TrEMBL record:
InterPro entries: AceGlu_kinase-like_sf, Asp/Glu/Uridylate_kinase, Fosfomycin_R_FomA-type. It comes from Thermoproteus uzoniensis (strain 768-20). Substrate binds at residues 43, 48, 134. The keyword ATP-binding applies. Gene3D superfamilies: Acetylglutamate kinase-like. This is Isopentenyl phosphate kinase.
Amino acid sequence: MLVVKFGGSAITDKKRPYTYRWGRLRAAAQALRGTRAILIHGAGSFAHPHVKAFGLTPAGVAKTKAALRRQTAMVVEDLAAASIYAMPIEPSEVFWGAKLVRREPIDAALSAGLYPLLHGDVVPSDGGYVVVSGDDMAVELASAYRPRAVVFLMDVDGIYTAEPGTPGAVKLREIAGGVAGGAAGIDVTGGIAKKVEAGLAIAGLGIPAYYCSIDDVAAVADLAAGREPETCSVARPSK
């Protein structure tokens, strides 16, 4: 089994609210056919603007949830075009804060041959409603389901020491912490630094976390087949 996250920056234009990049995920999704996986999509430009503008007020929660329903419908349709048939799982029904508290909807989808699909969201917690990123969900799902790998599919081909394309930026093959980074557009969940933190937490569970370009179909195919991709960054468990 894999846990695969389609990054919000890869499938939406974070600089333009509610802009979904139709077809961007299809080639990578096709490479997953026949591989058991739990899927996550980033909220991207569909949720971050609402949280930024309204916070976690009743208006902010309601507007964010409505936007995410629209985005998830697009993702399900896009995946179906790649013959990946997803069952949307409402995060607020299975997460309490960053903790997975109910597995039955996910297990039922897997048992039926569907791909459970979650997303970064606003969920209830002991302290009221909170934002839980898809990266945080990936850590929790890795802990619960023990996949052989977690895969972050992004709009860049790995983790760099600085913004890709800037002088001195070097792609890291293996990640050991200490990488700083922002994110293009509005992002209230932490950007690249948060992804690194999540990957290191996953590696701490004894599970490798790979950071690949969403356009690197060969890398996704390698991971689906249990092979080591040559073109991705990885947070690897310590020996």
